[in-house]
Each structure stands twice: as structure tokens, then as C-alpha cells.
Amino acid sequence: MTLDDPGYPVRLRALDRPPARLWVAGSVPERCVAMVGSRRPDLGGLRAARDIAAGLARAGLAIVSGGAVGIDAMAIGAALEGGGRAVIVLGSGIDKPYPRESVPLMLRAAASGCVVSQFPPDADPFPGRFHLRNRVIAALAEAVVVVRAGARSGALSTADHAFRLGRPVLAVPGSTSCESAAGSNALLRRGCQPAIDASDVTAAVRGAPAADAARPAESRDGVRAAPRRAGVEGAVLALLSGGDAVGADDLAEAVGLPAAAVAAALGVLEAEGAIARTVDGRFVALFDGR
Q1: Whose CA is closest to 124, among 103, 95, 101, 149?
Q2: Are 45 and 172 in contact (CB under 8 A)?
Q3: Which site among 125, 149, 199, 256 is 20 to 30 Å from 50 CA-CA?
Q4: Among positive and negative, which fits the CA dihedral 165, 135, 7, 83?
């Protein structure tokens, strides 16, 4: 698809230098909202992404993101499961989709919406291409929702492009103890509207202030950092980083691993004092001795 094509997305023409060519599998929906965020969010972030995306799908808005694991994949999956449409914008060529673990999700997105790339089909996923990809995500969207973003998250790049284009930017509030919410909470401090549910986003798309838009966002200077871990233990700590108490079964479902593997990781983390068990048997993370 070239700039001369009648089907070339109208919103991309708002860019100073629109991509001269696009490779598209599927068809580009007319109305989209971008939902972006951390690859390792807390459980609260995943739930917010699921609920907001499902609500937007019911409102007839497609979800656009980069399709990465974590927030992006949760939002795309929730929209598709709700009968909505989705757009995944690649930072690589369409014949070299990245990340590979999201390929099944990309196939589902192409069946209802599209997968799109501005790079030649055989282009590799070089880091610099993801910044250009984020520019296209922001341009395609009527609004950008940052669900979770760390202080240096790539999702903030998408928000910056949206600011330049005059698109509304919303952020889902996260706990001040959640490292993956440091950047998204900072957006709230800058004056971005909070996205509590899908109605906040649809109000922003209509140009009306959300009901709570005038309420000042509560935040604190500094964010307590969660212990850095790899593997199952790291995944469990990331999900608990929102500060909420979570049951072992819910953690196993979110991580996508057998309950036994998650239970073993919980045992190790509890023994080391990284997490604590509540009186009702759920688990909370302990950061900086809290």
C-alpha cells in the first residue's frame, strides 16, 4: 500500500513524513485506540488492560499496539475475545514477525483487523525500528492509553508521539510501589487523564473530559524498587509489584505455568523474605522492608 492508495490510513497522513509504503495483512479499521505498556506488568495492570480493552471493543473501537507480551498482548487478546478488532504494528518486516511468541495472536488480529509494517517484508527487528513503529501506533489511534510503563519504558515513546500529534493520552493509575507503573504514574503527574475504565477513554475520544479528569492524581516522589529476579520468581514478583494480595491460583493463571512451578517459586520467595503470606493465604510483595 502506497501513499497514493485510496485505502492508505487517513490518520497516518497527519505525520510529517508518513511511511511511503505499508505492508498489510488484513484491513485497517477506521477507528482505533492504542493500548500500550510494560512487558512485565503487575497483575492489576493486566486486569486493567483486559477490562478496558474489552469495553472499548464493545464500543466499536479497535485496539492497536505492538503486540508484545504483557500489556499489549493482553489488550489485543481481550478485544478479540470480545468480538472486536485489533491492529498489531510491527517493528520488523511482515515476513519476520517479532516477537515470535506473539505470532498466534498476530494471526488472530489479521483475521479481524490487520498486522501492518512500514518496513520491507524481510526486515529484521532492529531496536531503532521500534521507535518508528511507536510513531505509527500513535498516529493510527484516536487516543493512547498507557496501562503500565516503567520509568524508561518504550510505551512512553508512543505517548510522546501522541502528544506531538495532539492525540489524547491517558494513563491507568498504578501503585507507587509498582516499578512497572513509574512512567505511567508520571504521565498522570504531567496532567494526563486517568483511565479507570473504558468510559474514560471513550469520553476522551469524544473530546469530553472524563468524570474524574479534574481530580488531582495522587503520587509520591520515588518508587520502591522490586527485587530483580529472572524466571518464574521474577514473573511472580512482577505480578505482585502492584501491592495487592494475590492468590497462588491467580498467579499461576497469569504466569501461564503449572501451579506446582508457581508454588515452588512462592516458597523460595517467601523463605527469602521477598514476599509474605497474608492471613487468608494470599501473597504480597515486600519492597524495601515494607
Answers
A1: 95
A2: yes
A3: 125
A4: negative
pLDDT greater than 90 at residue 72: yes
Burial label, 238 (beta-carbon count in 10 A; 0-12, 13-18, 19+): buried
Residue type (1 letter), 269: L
pLDDT for the residue 123: 95
Query: What b-and-e string marks burial along 67-77, b requiring 16 or more CB atoms within 10 Å of the CB?
Result: bbebbbbbbbb
* DSSP per-residue letters across 256-273: TS-HHHHHHHHHHHHHTT
What's the rounded Cα separation, in Å, for the pair 196 and 199? 8
Res. 290: pLDDT tops 60 = no
* CB atoms inside a 10 Å sphere around CB 80: 21
Cα dist. 80→49, 62, 68, 111, 270 in Å? Answer: 13, 9, 16, 10, 37
pTM above 0.90, yes or no: no
